[in-house]
Amino acid sequence: MLTREYPKTLHLKDDKSVVLRPLAEDDFDRLLRFFQGIPEEDRLFLADDVTDPDLIRKWTGNINFERVIPLVALDEDRIVGDGTLHMASGGWARHVGHIRLVTARTHRHSGLGTLLARDLVALAAERNLEKLMAHVIEDSEGAVRMFQAVGFEKAAVVRNLVKDLRGQERNLAIMINDVASLTRALEDWIQDSMVPQFRAPGEG
Q1: Mind listing the pLDDT tens digit for each residue in 117-152?
Q2: How does pLDDT run across 81-113, given as a tens digit for each residue?
Q3: CATH superfamily of 8-192
Q4: Is the pTM of this model over 0.90?
Q5: Residues 140-176, buried b or exposed e (16+ Cβ, 10 A)?
Q6: Domain residue spans in the chain?
Q7: Burial class (CB in 10 A: 0-12, 13-18, 19+), 102
């Protein structure tokens, strides 16, 4: 069950806007077209073969918001962004979430990735997750910058840990977001913004 209100409109740069909502079972064709439209050089950095119809059918046919919250951004009837928050059901990492995010090339540099990530961070905070993790290929500089923009820090880099779809070894950057600290900073910023003179978090 989702506590945030969807669908919602995200206003992007250059007067663009998209609609953000949870993934639905009847999104199979839209989601498959979206991933098949991602250029191969971008798909090399993804963990799964997202052009496999069986995989997309599994994702759209087994939606469980208690384990994974999938959000999609639509430009009219076309998916242009996909973001997911993964949560453990228990164990020693039950307080840690994991997010994944992909945007269409047509909407790169529009702020969509950052806005999608912010919604996922907010959803994580609502579920009392304390930390968020994102795995990023280290030389995917755009993805690294996007996660840094929403409070993630590069915690470690493991050399040659993963292989892309061509079998080439890549360095994996493990990025961490301290959700609890970020939530407190946002609350302080909102409180300060209610008075004429306010400061951004961290400023004196």
Answers
A1: 889 888 988 888 888 888 888 877 778 887 887 788
A2: 999 999 877 777 778 889 988 899 889 888 898
A3: Gcn5-related N-acetyltransferase (GNAT) (3.40.630.30)
A4: no
A5: eeebbebbeebbbeeeeeeeeeeeeeeeeebebbbbb
A6: 8-192
A7: buried
